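One-letter codes give the sequence; backbone shape is given numerically. An example follows:

. . .
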Amino acid sequence: MTVSTVFLLACIGVLSLFCQWLAWRVRMPAILFLLAGGIAAGPMFGFLNPEEVFGDLLFPVISLAVAIILFEGSLTLRYEEIRGHGKMVRNLIPVGSIVTCFIGTLAARWILDVSWEVALLFGAISIVTGPTVIAPLLRSVRPDAKLANILRWEGIIIDPVGALLAVLVFEGIVSWGQGNVFGHSLYIFGKTLAVGFLLGALAGWLNGIALRKHLLPQYLHNAGTLTFMLGVYALSNEMAHESGLLTVTVMGIWMANMKQVPIDSILEFKESLSVLLISALFIILAARVEFAAIAQLGWGLVAVLALLMLVARPLSIFLSAIGTSLNWRDKLFLSWIAPRGIVAAAVSALFAFQLQKLGYESAGALVPLVFMLIIATVTLQSLTARPLAKLLKVAEPAEYGFLILGANPVARKIALALKKLEVPVTLADTSWENVKQARMENLPVYFGNPVSEHASTHLDLTGIGNLLVISPYKHMNSLATYHFLDWFGKGSVLTLAEGDQDQKARHQTAEKIQMTRGLFGGVSYAKLASLASQGYSVKTTQLSDEFTLDDFLEKYDRQAIVLFVLDTREHIMPVKNLSDIKPEKDWTLVSLVPPQARKERKERDTGEAPAPAPG
């Protein structure tokens, strides 16, 4: 049956959305399902043929999408982040890149017998892991904080660095192919680099100035930056053949490192764009993969993948770890985790097409080779990383820590008390003033929306398995509750009661939200904020035979609110209904208490010395 182009385009969108949803449900990188969906729709069932659907527009569309991917990745590359994340991360970027590129190049050249140019390009592409595949894997594996931070920051930094290296290698190949002699090839390569770096830096500076000085209205920040970037990409290609990718990468890096340039909203805009554009791109790319091309690589493909996974990665880790405090278990775990992601897939498809136009016959092997590397690393490592972490004893213990939505004064008081009890805690807030105060109190804090894609990459949830919603932002509270109910599970997400009972009756909240209500005995955020403004403080008290729960409540005229109880096994529990928990002796209470008990005030007024009380 012949179907219309409109129907096929709609099916691509629906399929990409389904793949994203499925990845979210099973907590695996979305790229694996997108590639599988594209292969099923294309070579497996023959439903989708991208060349017939898009015609001559296919590769212009792909090239623009790749430009967007590289620009977004380069916006995350801040120099201070490279300097601030330990010797291992700083070593791993250059050492890992060189080792992986060298071994990948030689393996592709000698085992698969592709040309040196294609082999070198494959080696450059194969170094990129990326946060889109690392973050979901870390959430399911939960290694200890040290290893999780190394892998997360390696993925964030290697994403634009690897893309830049791949672009430079490609520019060199194209320049050499256009020159009849060495000198002319060198001239073309130099021209490409000059246009890419100079135009990229100029465009980044101009766009940064426009954003910093509010020369564009707020509603045009995202769309204006995107369209300007695409215009610069096209102009760069006109000035120097295939220099556009280098230009937009440099533009993104320049903007990321300018002072007082608001790029966070641009990064958030990419979330919707990635679901619509980038997800559809991988359906289209995977639909072009040919089983015959994969089969043609034969057992050599397996050998190349084995060398990259079992030789190149371990060698990179052990060389980079020289002089660090990592033990052999840490190194073995890091040696196994290096899934490839979005940049590798997108760049390989575009570059393979360009090289084939230039007459490199072996360029056809680049796409199936890179796609099989992605599928092998994501699948094998997602399935085996958790058992390996347990075997090597590098898995994080039970996730008993708390993510607190809100960094307001009440939330900060609670977080400080939990931190003193050595309970992992992280605050999240969209108010810069609250975040600044939390940082001044040395509390771990995330600035932004905790359910955003940016948070999925940058929000460290190591050791954290519970959400406490202590925030006045009702819309964000609901979004976070739904999001983390699916992530942490029922019973691990607790929210405060609504303050306006009449409004609550008029607007019935979904049952899922209602089940989370009642934190701290059903108190509302307005009540907590009011008590904090009256001088209430968070106090830790240990119960005993001489000082029971009733003694504690009587001491504070039953005005104290018990927030948490810590039992003798050091298991901490947020309090919903104190009568359901029944604290015993040697348990510890974390409570919000008034500034001074009534008996103490009376004794002060009458001049009597207060008797010492436990706790």
In short: The mean pLDDT is 80.
